[in-house]
Amino acid sequence: MRADVLRGLRIPLYWPAILPTAGLLLLGLAALSGLEVRLGLHWVDDWHVRQAIGIAVGLAASAAFVLVPYKTIIGRAYLLYGATLLLLVAVLVVGSERNNARRWIELPGFEFQPSELMKLALVITLARFIRFRSSYKTFKGLFTPFLLTLVPMGLILIQPDLGTALLFIPILFAMLFAAGARPRHLLLVILLGAAGILPLYQWGLKPYQKERIDGFLVQLGVMSAEGGGGKNAGGDAGGKEADAARRKAEAKRREAMAKDENYQLEQSKVAVGAGGFFGADEEGAGGQVLYRVPERQTDFVFAAVANRWGFLGGLLVVALLGWLLVSILAVAARHRDPAGRLLCLGVFAMLAGQAFINLAMTVGLMPVTGLTLPFLSYGRSSLVVCMLGVALVCNVAARPAYDFGRGDFD
Amino acid sequence: MTLGYRGRLALLAVLAGILGLAFLSRLFAMQVAGSGKYRKLARKQIAGARPLHPPRGRILDATGQELAAEETGYELTVRAAAWRSVMHECQRCGFVRFYTKTQKVGACIRCGKPLVRVDRSDATPLARLLEMSVQELLDRVEARVREVEGIVADRLGTDLPPRREEQEQARLWADYGWRPRRIARDVSYEVAREVELNPHQYPAFRIRAVHARRANGGRDFVHLLGLVREETESVDGLKLEVAAGVSGIERAFDDVLRGEPGKLRIARDPRDGEERVVERQPARPGEDVRLTIAARDQALAVAALGGTTGALVVIDAHDGDVLAAASSPCYEPGEYARVLADLNEQKERLGRWPKHHALQDAVFSGFDAPGSIVKPVTAVAALLAGVATPETRIECDRHFRNRRGQPLGSLKCSSAHGDVCVRDALIRSCNVYFQTVQKEAIERGAFDRMFDVARRFGFGLRTGVELEPALFDDTWDPGRSWAENVWMAIGQGKVRLSPAQVARAYAGLATGSLPRLRLVAEVGGRPVPPQRTPLGIDESVLRLVRESLAEVARHGTAAGHGLERWPIFVKTGTAQLGGTLQNAWLAGFLPAHRGRPAIAFAIVVFDTELNAAAACAPALSDFLRGFYVESGS
Fold first, then answer.
1. Residue B503 and which of A340, B113, B227, B513 are 20 to 30 A apart at CA?
2. What is the ipTM of this complex?
3. Domains and CATH numbers, chain B
4. Residue with the larger pLDDT of the pair B269 and A180
5. CA distance A279 to chain B (A)
6. Contacts of B276 in chain A (CB under 8 A)
């Protein structure tokens, strides 16, 4: 009898997803170990210990999550969505404010970020909504999935947390696209969204968010530090004048580095670049520059990895992430249940989008957004949610659906 | 063409792959192709280096008591540029940033909160700490700010175009404006701690450590330890003020005591000026030097000399350890400037430096005519050279006669000693006997052998103590004339000895070996081994001389001055200076007694009208009483 119960509790493990996840978690712990961060007047370097506690919590939560059949979870999707929405409202009222944002609910012993949970809740809700419908194949039918996405996005933008909010868009588009939504409808939505970018920049963003975008454009040379002109400010004056203009632009770019808006990005780039192929010597200037990267334990943890272990370290991170994403896609590809497929795709989009945005901002390919690198960054809410995402994939992979012939969404 | 489900998945996978490749290309460009550029940028962010002060080693006495040690004090400084800038603070985390009046005020880099301007009235708590009025503090600060303004104005080129002038001014302010300038010295440790631990409360102010040499040995050791002065040392191009020895042990062991400066490489955050040490090359502290002298014995020697001008040196007769070395007059180390001023005044008055003065060490550097103190060595030399035997007797009618038989009046004996042998001559200090022996040696061609014996006793040679002057020539050389060579036998003429040399020679007489004097017992915990050289002199000769010296305190020239109560072997000596003044000497040795080792000593009183015993015996008695009796040993 007891053996039957234990057999019933057997945790389904999908090793192709678990192994790279474990690799990323270990790499994250190694990156955080010895990473000193100034808190007030003190330097603290126990981030790896705190992260290990987060991993333990994540493992426990994942084990519980994987034991419940994913169809049961899908069945409670709207409940989960509604509860998380309530939490998002609650955080605006009772949440603790930090870094000029109200994102955390403080509970005894830990802090919790509802917007992180919303990512997973959205994946599950969209999977529930889309699985047996085909209305999203019409332009009008896209309204409900977009509404389901935009409501939490709006609440998260109020906090404000632009990075997390923006992550909802690739999740929505990837799930709709995979489910068979018409590409032209999605393109039309993208065009409409693009038209709203300028008004959003002008009136919808906080000053510091604008500064980050300005800083990004300055470092690309698209915009001068004074906000006007362009990279070729010298125009066609040619020869020496053009060189002088370029030098001036470069000087302004360096000057901008000292300013707040671009500081984080420039320091991150210097730390990454100084890592070289094998990593920077910690005692040398190349290694020490890492200490000037703000948020190096959270959003800019990749700068720490790339600085300490160089290009090889970066390559390892990308390889592990690639392995994980491919294994998730493989489950999505071979699974027969539409809900299972959508869940996997949602998790895929969530992890891939978050990883790319984070990595790209670290090396200056995108503006700085407050988004963690899955499994590596310190941030226990994000860590637990990412681990729950992998648990969801394991859940789906361990419960194959019955094959009734031609797959759904075809 | 419509894509199936797996086709769409493949498309998503390809899209993700393209993004991944784009990222990797960028990473490759930054870390492999462009790594040099970023490393250069990283190096540029190293703000500079700062030298680390090496604590100067201590000088300890024989018992481990500190005679000289470094004392750290604190100064309060202000950075004019920070003071002139407008300070802004984050109300949440205390982050501070300075803005010039034209700069746009930004947000806190930690909290994102707008920074709030801080009122300059923050000087009030600091003024309270320093126990001065706010106005006084502000006046001091403003004086320093004006000082920097003056420097900048002086260095600012003329005829610069307005824009260039502005840039140049900013550059000069960045250079000179952030250098800390003293506004209060000798601030207490509590104040220093408060300011250092709360930089956000006192943002324009910094504490600077000041290292001063504290001479605990005081006046007793002032000649031995010497003085230090501030010197600028360069460490890889960085300037550092360090104490450098200019005299005494401080100079002789300067390279040991000084240590080696270290270096910090500092990175400064361009936004908030926060500094972080990125490389630490620790300073190597100077090593301690332990002397052979106990502070107590030295104090006895100084007290014994009292106000006389002279010197007293006592050494371990076997090992050569210097047990006391007092030179009088002496002074408190803190009074150096006053003493020097007095000395300059005397020089003005006399037209020359006084022969003996407070700034001079007389024990190791005070070379003077030794007088009859050398006669025991002459006796040994004569006996060894075969010029005289113990039984050789010479008639003394007060006058020594030259080669033509004419009496020489200048170096006659004080009374006619009659028919004297070497023993009598030593006890009664007969000039005629020793001059006659020396004349015989010169006539028989044995002068060189006698001179060689004097050298064996260390006359004209270094004692081994590091405080002796660099110039050390012709203090004990053959004379240029017959008379000078004869006078050498009684320590007159051009020959010179220091009290340390005399004490060392008497240690040789006592033990049959010439010790190398040792003032320093340990350097950095490593013992300095004693050295001694056997004189190679027949023991019977030395015994004869010792027996003679044992009689001097009882029946000889030192009798009647209280020395007979000691088991003492002693010889008096006077060196005529013209007029009624003379240098009075007393030298000898005592066997191991009351737990103390066998000692040799020399005492000299300069420019006295008293005879040797009267001038020196009281001081020696005082010293011996303290050394043997009051020490309880």
1. B227
2. 0.86
3. 44-78+192-287 (3.90.1310.10), 117-179 (no CATH), 295-614 (3.40.710.10)
4. A180
5. 9
6. 288, 291
